[in-house]
Amino acid sequence: MSRTLPVGLEDRAYDVIVGEGLLDVAGRLIAPFQTRGRTAVVSDETVWGLYGAQLTAALASAGIKALPVVVPPGEQTKSFEGLADVSDRLLALELDRGDLITAFGGGVVGDLAGFAAAIYKRGIDFVQIPTTLLAQVDSSVGGKTAIDTPRGKNLVGAFHQPKLVLADLTVLGTLDARQMRAGYAEVIKYGLLGDRGFFEWLEVNGADVLSREPDALATAVARSIEMKAEIVAEDEREQGRRALLNLGHTFAHALEAETGFGDALLHGEAVGCGMALAFRFSAAQGLLNGQDAGRATRAIAAAGLPTTLAEVPGRTFDAAGLVAHMGQDKKAEGGKLTFILARALGEAFVAKNVDAGAVRAFLVEEGARI
Ligand code: GLY
After folding, report:
1. pLDDT tens for residues 27-44?
2. Distance 188 CA to ligand 1 centre (A)
3. Of 75, 226, 236, 238, which residue is the catalytic one?
4. Claim to verify: residue 220 and residue 290 sit in the same structural domain
5. Which atom, in ligand 1's list, is nearest to the CA of 139?
6. What is the pLDDT of residue 35?
7. What CATH number should be reported for the domain holding residue 303?
8. Does 201 have pLDDT greater than 90?
9. In the annotation, is 144 catalytic?
10. Is 253 noted as a catalytic residue in this protein?
11. With bands split at pLDDT 50, 70 and 90, how would you rate the model's confidence at 302?
């Protein structure tokens, strides 16, 4: 069974289809979005090795030839060099503006292929087939595409909405447990930022989601995408409410910058810790009661995600160093710090002009060096 969740963006509207076994019918679902019987499939070696033949066959059964553009796995591929390589290979395939790109992989592939699609011959259509939980519930929906530069993550990019997103729950079966937990951080984020009922459902059913019990997984992914779609439809360019999707991300980016944006701390793990810090900081500022901050922390910890600085492996942190990274965050305007804070479980808000000194003092309370 599958569910179709619309992203209501007028002339850029599209559907996200969530369900099991979608890869096998991908050809039929993608067919309306291409006219020339072919699609360039940007994927990474891991995903292509596991599922490339299956997707190729599914596309062929609908008369669509897959033209693979396979890149190395990992964040380093999301770079100017990676973009140049993918663009050159698309040109070599003589793709033109009437063709379609299929992004088939996790967040790295989606962001890279999406950005390549945004700028290739000034823009070409693309569809997303996200293969990680994080990509299904967050990065494949909403049209943010980007690459990293040595100065930071996602600093060069474009808004470019896909024509279709296929979130096949079956492919999550081969995702390792750590990547499931990292994606789950973004699932719990939706409950914490805007739906207390969903948060409470996750408190009870989170373990089933993580163990990929089919009904629980489908409910969690669909509700997450539904919330993302609703927020993106209201605020595509992040002028207001979309910023709530950055809950936990200001703390998370600082932790990731300190740990080198790599395997030591996955983005989702940093977001888990960042959300726990954001809830406790909200309580420390008198905005939220301590019980709710404790409940948020326990729900994140129950998923096996870090919730304290001490649980981030292999590092002790310096409060001033962390705050300095926050100052470089894309959300910092005029030197002020912007955070997503909470008034209650399921009630996050954008807090501008947060005092850096208060953040530093809070981080010292949390165990960071002065
Ligand atoms: N990942 C946050 C957003 O799409 O806005």
Report:
1. 999 999 999 999 999 999
2. 14
3. 238
4. yes
5. 1
6. 93
7. 1.20.1090.10
8. yes
9. yes
10. yes
11. very high
Q: What is the pLDDT of residues 85-111, one digit of tens each?
A: 999 999 999 999 889 999 999 999 999
- What is the extent of the structural domain holding 76? 3-173
Contact predicate 200/50, CB 8 Å: no
Q: Which of 144, 160, 280, 360 is catalytic?
A: 144
Nearest atom (ligand 1) to Cα of 231: 5
The DSSP symbol for 106 reads: S
Closest CA to 149 of 76, 89, 88: 76
Pocket of ligand 1 (CB under 6 A): 138, 142, 144, 242, 245
Among 134, 239, 246, 329, say which to mutate for ligand 1: greatest number of ligand atoms within 8 Å of CB: 246
Residues 194 and 145 in one domain: no
Nearest-10 Cα torsion for 248, 251, 253, 255: -130
Establish if 370 belongs to a structural domain. Answer: no
Q: How does DSSP assign 286-323, residue by residue?
A: TSS-HHHHHHHHHHHHHTT---SGGGSTT---BHHHHH
**Contact between residue 356 and residue 322 where contact means Cβ atoms under 8 Å apart:** no
Of 117, 152, 173, which closes a domain? 173
Among 7, 245, 340, which is best to mutate for testing ligand 1, by the most ligand atoms less than 8 A from CB?
A: 245
Please say which residue of 173, 192, 216 terminates a domain. 173
Residue 144 lies inside a defined structural domain of this protein: yes
Judge whether 299 and 249 are in contact, CB under 8 Å.
no
CATH of the domain at 130: 3.40.50.1970
Q: For residue 150, what pLDDT is reported? A: 86
- Under the banding of pLDDT at 50, 70 and 90, the label for residue 334 is low
Q: Tell me, what's the pLDDT at 336?
A: 73
**Distance separating alpha carbons of residues 31 and 11, to the nearest angstrom:** 19
